[in-house]
Amino acid sequence: MAGKRHLGLGKAAASKKQKSAPAEIASYESTASPVPENELTVELGEEVNANDAIAQLRALWRDFVKTQDRSELKVNGIIHECDRILRKYHAREAKGDEKGTGMKHGTESGEASGKQQDSEDIDDDEVIELSGEFYGIYGLALSSLGFFYTEEPSKVEEFFNEAKDRISVGRQKFPDSVALLFAEARVLINEIPLTSISPLTVESKVSKKHRDVASLLDECLAVWEKAEKLSEERKNYKYYNLENSDFLQALDDLLDMVDNFGRKPLEGKDSDSEDEDEDELTLSPKHPLFAIVESDKYNLWWREHTQRFLNNLNEKIRIEQISESDSRDANLVLRRELCKRLGQSMLLEAEEPSHVFTTLTYYNKGEKSMNGLTREDARDIGQKLLLKAIEYLRLAQDDEDPDSWAALAEAMISLGNMYELDSDEQESVYKEAEEILVRANNATNGRYEKVLENLTQT
């Protein structure tokens, strides 16, 4: 079962666990496909030490995360680099070469041994200092392999098991690493759809084979919350970036997958038609997804922690003194995206009270309530949600994106519809919405002409 998009990162090739005899160093040597020499290159910033292995690995990983072409080849290259770093690290450790940095940690299960160095010079000037971030990148890269093999469940499971093993080794060495906690949460959120939801059918029940997905999700969210708490306590806001925001998008996709579980779209049928209730599915209380389907807990968690992420991102922008005039700065772009998501979330929640208010006001005037809401209750709830949506959508506006202006205007029209007909409040909101739409329409050669016509006819 596939979600509406690839969750999380990019996705890529296979790795195989190999254990030595008990008396020897246990080693994992990833067997990702060979990468042609010089195939993976990335330009390093002037501040990056070209001899710093972890800095170069970080640059490779960030380049992969940002690119639209998240290919298997690139992840293979990153995994090979992780393998190489560990081999060289332990070869130096075994030799007792003090040129290597970060040598205070002993070899443990889950790391590459120092054998098979080939022609690599372990006594060169390359700096290797292992950290929680290193193990986080290692685990995330391995977990990305699963997205390339969704038709081979056993391989997917193996990839995630190895990814979690790297995370586990890292946590033993760096138990207070915030970077590693964020990485662990991202590995877990990507694992759930591929290994725990995809195999399910409507008839599935909680068992040894199928765990309760809500409990898995709770474990994942707890890791994220721990990372949040530690970063906030240390006032270290560097982790609130595009890469880690992917966790929130992955959670949103997971919840969307659950919402649509078991539904089979019918050809020629409008998914928004009034007959959509016919497609509603009732799951057994014993179904692994039942607890998520029957609760709004996780949607509320998503909104609360997206708002929290946004607050921490704003702190990062303030502390780093990022200029608001630099609209293309990655942090400001991310802030607009988060505000857009939150605004859309508020709009969706406002649909029900808006529908109730409109129905009781214009169509069923004799009825006092609908879906448990009176006309006045629906109006108050709807207005509150729409005002909050507008607040976020104002912050989401991009001077170079007319669609962001139109999204704000359409939210304002929805708010206007919640006021009394021809009231001053309604006219004021409609007027501002019209001004914004005219600007967006002119910038897009008439894309919003029909919306404008409908507004001016009200």
TrEMBL record:
Q: Which UniProt keywords apply?
A: Nucleus, Transcription, Transcription regulation, Translation regulation
Q: Which intervals carry biased composition (Basic and acidic residues)?
A: 93-108
State the compartments where it is located.
Nucleus
- Disordered: annotated span: 1-38, 93-122
- What GO biological process, any one, is recorded here? regulation of translation
A Pfam family (short name) is Nro1
User: Does the UniProt entry include the keyword Nucleus?
Assistant: yes
UniProt feature, compositional bias: Basic residues: 1-19
Residues crossing the lipid bilayer are none
Q: Which GO terms describe its cellular component?
A: nucleus
| Keyword flag Thylakoid | no
Give the protein's biological function.
Required for correct translation termination and probably involved in regulation of hypoxic gene expression.
Matching entries from PANTHER family are given as: ENHANCER OF TRANSLATION TERMINATION 1
UniProt lists the family membership as follows: Belongs to the ETT1 family.
Name this polypeptide is given: Enhancer of translation termination 1
Q: Report the source organism.
A: Metschnikowia aff. pulcherrima
